[in-house]
Design goal:
Radius of gyration: 21 Å
Distance between the termini: 15 Å
Low-confidence stretches: none
Shape: globular
Largest sheet: 5 strands, antiparallel
Number of helices: 11
CATH superfamily of the largest domain: Regulatory protein AraC
CATH class of the largest domain: Mainly Beta
Number of strands: 9
């Protein structure tokens, strides 16, 4: 599985349809070749419910460990990524919906009074739903009910989904509506700087990238760029770049590229170095993975 993302890290997939802007799906984190889905953002709100296992989930510069039965609210336009924790897989439900599914039309009272303050808040990018409070328990229960509706597709399916999402939003507003306005805003410059760096790395991974090239994108010196990236991402800039290149290489190997062609297309200096890095990251050689993938 691979997310379709543009150079600005915005997901290109349309979540639902214009008439019903809701997308619900059950996924496993192992369905992503690298055991994680890449950093991205979209205009829709995303709700996650973990059915089994655990997932490391990051939103902007917040980090969460989601366990079985827990969930997450990820606000519109927030950068986010999820990854496998250790060797254990994570089975989860992902629900995305556009805010207009609840507020209806531009200028509606529901939009201006109950939704805009949260959706546009720079202080409320995400909330971990642990089930410790009554409203969170109800929100998690509603999320699971929406998933069951997807499986059954009963009469009034769309209206039932809207009813349950409206209930989740009412709880969210009652508990976080005022806080969204009072809480100190996340550093917008910092988040935008991270977006710029990720966009640069993902847009130029096939080329030779130096630390000076990356630092220039965000007007930082090389040492500060390194510190900033490590502080925000938890890994060094070049460790992240290597992992991203390996993920891209797996897609090419599956489509029939040779090891040498793949190494060149993914920014590795030579096939031997590529093979070494690939084995360190995946436990297999590129040729073995290529053979296995083509066999399947």
């Amino acid at each position: 599985m691979e997310l379709q993302i543009n150079e600005q890290r915005q997901e290109l997939k349309f979540h639902g349809t214009y008439g019903f802007p809701v997308n619900v799906g059950r996924k496993k984190i192992s369905s992503y070749e690298t055991g994680s889905f890449p950093w991205h953002w979209h205009n829709e709100i995303e709700l996650t419910l973990v059915l089994s296992g655990e997932m490391e989930y990051r939103v902007n510069d917040n980090s969460y460990l989601l366990k079985e039965g827990q969930g997450l609210f990820c606000n519109a336009n927030a950068l986010h990524t999820g990854a496998m924790r250790g060797e254990a897989d994570c089975d989860y439900v992902s629900l995305t919906f556009h805010p207009r599914f609840l507020y209806g039309y531009e200028g509606s009272v529901i939009r201006t009074k109950y939704m805009e303050g949260i959706v546009n808040s720079t202080a409320l990018s995400s909330i971990q739903l642990t089930g410790e409070s009554a409203w969170q328990k109800e929100a998690l229960r509603s999320l699971f009910q929406i998933y069951e509706l997807l499986l059954e597709k009963p009469e009034l399916y769309e209206m039932e989904v809207q009813r349950l999402l409206a209930g989740i939003w009412i709880g969210l507003f009652r508990n976080y509506g005022e806080e969204a306005q009072r809480a100190p805003a996340e550093d917008l410059e910092k988040i935008e700087r991270l977006r710029t760096l990720l966009s640069f790395l993902h847009g130029h991974y096939a080329e030779k990238i130096t630390l000076e090239d990356a630092a220039r994108q965000v007007n930082l010196c090389k040492s500060e760029c390194c510190r900033f990236f490590k502080r925000q991402m938890g890994v060094s800039l070049f460790d992240y770049l290597l992992q991203y290149r390996v993920g891209k290489s797996m897609d090419l190997l599956k489509t029939g590229y040779t090891v040498a062609e793949t190494a060149q297309a993914c920014g590795f200096s030579n096939p031997a170095y590529f093979a070494k890095v690939f084995h360190m990251r995946t436990g297999r050689s590129p040729s073995a993975y290529r053979k296995e993938s083509r066999g399947n």
